[in-house]
Amino acid sequence: MDTHFAPDYAFKTATVSLTGIDEAKQYYGAILRAFSDIEFVIEDAFGQGDKLVKRWVFGGNHTGEINGIPATGKRISLVGVTLARMVNGKIVEERDYADDLGLLQQLGVIPQLGR
Questions:
Q1: What region does 67 belong to: left with phi over 0, alpha with psi -120 to 50, or beta?
Q2: More exposed terminus of the chain, fewer Cβ within 10 Å: N or C?
Q3: How many Cβ atoms sit within 10 Å of the Cβ of residue 113?
């Protein structure tokens, strides 16, 4: 992260707001500890000026606790889009839009409708 992100990096989702690389490292570290056999695929990426858009898929086995949810052993696939802003070749801001409802349904925390 130190190579590609600005020191004042900001990250936002519908439920998370982080400022600085240290907070981001803690956030991403928790994800890396909660999932194993991780696959992260950027399916599309394009940009203009200082803006970059990435469409991605994150997959992994839920083998550790995350946000109070104990390990389920389930394989998940989370889709999302990230809007990023760059300055001097470093990411200064990212906004993630991901299918959090689908993730919670895959983990069994929220039942799937019609099942």
A1: left
A2: C
A3: 6
**Nearest-CA neighbor of 51 among 87, 12, 19?**
87
- Global pTM value: 0.89
| Span 26-54, pLDDT tens digits | 999 999 999 999 999 999 999 999 999 99
Q: Is residue 24 part of a domain?
A: yes
CATH number, domain containing residue 38: 3.10.450.50
